[in-house]
Amino acid sequence: MWKLLVAVVPAVVLIVYIMIRDKYEREPIRKILLTFFAGMLAVPLDLSLIAIFDLDYLPLMCDGAVSAQIATAFFSAAIPEEFSKFVILFLLIWWSKDFNERMDGIVYAVCVSMGFATVENVMYVFNDPSCAWGRALFAVPGHFLFGVLMGFFFSLAKFSVKHKFRNWTMTLLAPILAHGIYDAILMVADVATEGWAALLTIAFYVFIFVLWRICLNKISEHVETSPFSYWRKYRDKQQKMKDISDDQKIDNMKDFFDR
Questions:
Q1: Residue 134: inside a domain, yes or no?
Q2: Which mean pLDDT values do the consecutive 10-residue runs of the chain (259 residues) have?
Q3: Which of 7, 141, 219, 259 sits at 20 to 30 Å (Cα–Cα) from 210?
Q4: Angle at 218 between CA 214 and CA 220, to 5 degrees
Q5: Which domain holds residue 201?
């Protein structure tokens, strides 16, 4: 029982966190759950892509252990996994009426990623319980961060009229690069000498710290540009205007909309 809890709870905590950050217009619980469980389907899709395109074979064509590990990180993990998540996210969310502001893209992309991460985590933890805490602290939050990057650009592709091609490209490229670098550092450290392994471990922690900073800034950016935030500010302004004169109300409304 404890293995199941350790495997599932980190994803649930991160979903609750992103729901709390979506403070102006929160998504329906039923849609959150639907997206989370649909994200689990990205696992068999990922495995199918690896099998169909023989992606596990590509690293074997590389000369040297380091290049093989880097190829494994990208072709056997980052590319098929992030593409599988994107397919689920696009099919389920792009035309949804609930996808009505930029922050929604991050919320739903995180839910898809957490669905994927939960299944992956259960598989790893039940196979090797010793990895449970490491995955809870790094692997699942890693998928959370990849989801934030995907959702950020997914929303820009939907709602921004500029740079459509760039935003569509970054919707896949940003999480793939982050995921690939994350895995590559760990995988190369496994085959490196003791000194290089120590340096790569430090580099991994720095990379995680920087990635968290970037993703938290991305979340804040979409939260603060929410159209619902402007409505709430206007509504709060109206509440404060109840006890002032009509002329002052008009002046305050002009000041608000001129900002």
A1: yes
A2: 85 97 94 98 97 90 92 97 98 97 97 98 92 93 98 97 95 98 97 95 98 98 85 56 54 51
A3: 7
A4: 115
A5: 2-225
